[in-house]
Amino acid sequence: MMRIKIGEALIKDSKINENQLQHALQVQKELIKKKRLGEILIDLGYVSKRDLREVTKKYEHKVQIGVILIENRAITSEVLEEALEIQKEKKKPIGNILIDLGAITEEEFAKAFSIQMDLPYVLPDKRLIDMKLFSRLPEKFMHEYGALPMWENEGAVTVLVHDPTDGFVQKFLRNTYGEKYEMAVAPKSAIKKVLEEIVKEKELVSSSVMSPVDESQQTAFRRYPMDDDTPARSGTGQIVNIVNYILSNAIKERASDIHVESQVDRLRVRYRIDGKLIYRTDLPKYLMDPIIRRLKVMARMDITEIRDTQEGRIFISYNKQDIDLRVSIFATVLGGAVTIRLLTKELGLRDLEDLGMLPRVLKTLKLILDSPSGLILFTGPTGCGKTTSLYACLNYLNTWNVKIVTLEDPVEYSIEGISQCQVKSMKEGIIAERVKAMMHQDPDVMVIGEISNEATAYGAIQTALTGHMVCSTIHTDDSIGAVLRLLDSGLRTFLLSSTSMAILSQRLVRKICPQCRERYSPSVEIVKEFHIKNFDPDQFEFYRGILIQQKGATNLIVHSQ
User: Fold this and answer.
1) What pLDDT score was predicted for residue 95?
2) Which of these, 561, 87, 508, 559, lies nearest to 272 by C-alpha position?
3) Which CATH architecture has domain 349-510?
4) SS3 assignment, position 421
């Protein structure tokens, strides 16, 4: 059966008409640089990207790898053109050429390949492997063709491969599992690494190693031990390993948040690293319920409640480091979404000097913090580091002769020497009662975690009026916005003017890693975007980050105004 052309398919599905197709073909013929018909139709406004993707999938037209990489901002069209010119000479797959050029990583190529083939993308780890399945495939085949059995659901085995189009691999898997197998895509080097790790540890896997942790012995103050050397397991032990894999990888990559979300046919795991949400891996859809149950057990939530949202905390120990996890479980139409905030003292508790403030701003802030009374607010959008700055101020103030009392929802970091109180509700009656109780503690400094309503705003102002130093945060875009929001909450202007000492607005700024940067000259277009008059870029040195395999995210600093 002959495959229908993309233009005919779009007409057949009433996405375009014949005149539009002919116009697009004429434009394609007149172009100096070759361009796909689908891209031309999008540029002309005849179809949307979504329409084109739906039609190509329906009529089995595969979207080219280069187009997928451009759509996901992994490369530019100029880089793709360069790779296509090289392909004419070397006759190599476009993905290999882009990897050789350093334009993309093997991981990015595997993600694009999975989108093209409409298969899940999985980043393998030995803790995800079901060892019963591993023993059913010959090791020689797995090493030679980059295949790795992962898990089994209702008799169907998911096998990880680096090239799902390989005919021999498909035939071998069909002979082994019949028609009950599914494929997922992963980088070949990652598959090879996991295979080598499992082969080395096969002798160590025993019933004693795989014995489950006795959860009944866990107390409210005991931390769950977690490490990277846990051998692969089967059954319920594999669920424990999968959760440990998700958590420990996020810690290693310095993620601030973990997102596990149900999709139509899979789970998607993403990490927020340096303020940017990064897609990490896919998992089978059926694992969502076991993963949520495991997290609920660890966070001491109600495992019988499946429809309502729940929040809890998990305390773990990883590589001799104590880490607190704030877990939020949210019911969605596709099954559920789990978001986990990672709270580590190493990343979260900083000194004021570590925030990257300008010397002038830092000196002024320290002078204000040394004042006996007044209100200090940190403001900015979600995820800009307000809480980090607030705790840095507490670190600065936390001495033997200063009594600090806090009112937080929730307590994100525990600091020795500070009396921290966690409240479940910031309603007016509760806040008034707690603020009164805080005053009876004879504090020098009082902290209200966030000013989110009229009750918290009034409580902060009244506390500052009594001669105490008060620190807090508020969600606004800038410093002026904080003043307007406080006035909108009902505060009188004379109260605000007589108590406010400082309002600091901040943003996170990405820094280039000193070990992986290179000098370059910015283009004229980039310089023009900043609207700087009489600016000569040749008088300055400019650097940009370079792509390094397996490189973590960049460090961040705080910029204050």
Assistant:
1) 87
2) 508
3) 3-Layer(aba) Sandwich (3.40)
4) strand
Domain layout of the chain by residue ranges: 6-104, 105-202, 210-343, 349-510
What pLDDT sits at residue 555?
Answer: 40
CB under 8 Å to 189, separation ≥6 — which residues? 106
For 210-343, give the CATH class: alpha beta
Interatomic CA distance for residues 368 and 376, integer angstroms:
8
| DSSP structure class, residue 212 | P
Minimum mean pLDDT range among 209-218, 362-371, 379-388, 469-478: 209-218
The distance of Cα 427 from the centroid of its chain, to the nearest Å, equals 32
- CA dist 278 and 368 (Å) reads 38
Report the alpha-carbon distance of residue 229 to residue 211 in Å, rounded: 15
* N-terminal to C-terminal alpha carbon distance within the chain: 66
CATH number of 105-202: 3.30.300.160
Measured between alpha carbons, how far is 63 from 84 in angstroms, rounded to an integer? 16
Which residues sit opposite 330 in a β-bridge? 337
C-alpha dist (Å) from residue 67 to 52, 110, 549: 12, 14, 22
Residue holding tokens 């494929």? 183
Residue 407, classified by CB atoms within 10 Å of its CB into exposed (0-12), middle (13-18) or buried (19+), is: buried
Name the least confident of 53-57, 282-286, 368-372: 53-57
> Considering Cα of 119, then 124, then 129, then 133, what sign does the dihedral take?
positive
Residue whose tokens read 């090493």 = 143
Cβ of 473: how many Cβ atoms within 10 Å?
22
- Nearest residue to 118 via CA among 181, 43, 63: 63
Q: What percent of the chain is helix, strand and coil (3-state, nearest 5)?
A: 40, 20, 35
Tell me, what DSSP letter sits at residue 353? G
Residue with tokens 């704030």, as numbered in its chain: 326
Provide the mean pLDDT of the chain: 82
Nearest to 313 by CA among 323, 133, 9: 323
With beta carbons less than 8 A apart as the criterion, state whether 247 and 317 touch: no
The answer to whether the CB of 238 falls within 8 A of the CB of 125 is: no
Q: In whole angstroms, what separates CA 53 from the centre of its chain?
A: 26
DSSP per-residue letters across 274-342: TTEEEEEEEEEGGGHHHHHHHHHHHHT--TT--SS-EEEEEEEEETTEEEEEEEEEE--TTS-EEEEEE
- Which stretch of DSSP H or E encloses residue 57? helix 49-58
Whether 549 has a pLDDT exceeding 50, the answer reads no
How far, rounded to the nearest angstrom, does the alpha carbon of residue 7 sit from its chain's CA centroid? 38
φ/ψ of 18, rounded to 5, equals -65, -40
Bridge partners, 183 (sequence order): 159
Single pTM value for the model = 0.73
Looking at the predicted structure, is the pLDDT value of residue 288 above 60? yes
Work out the angle between the directed axes of helices 188-201 and 106-117 (0-180°, nearest 10): 110
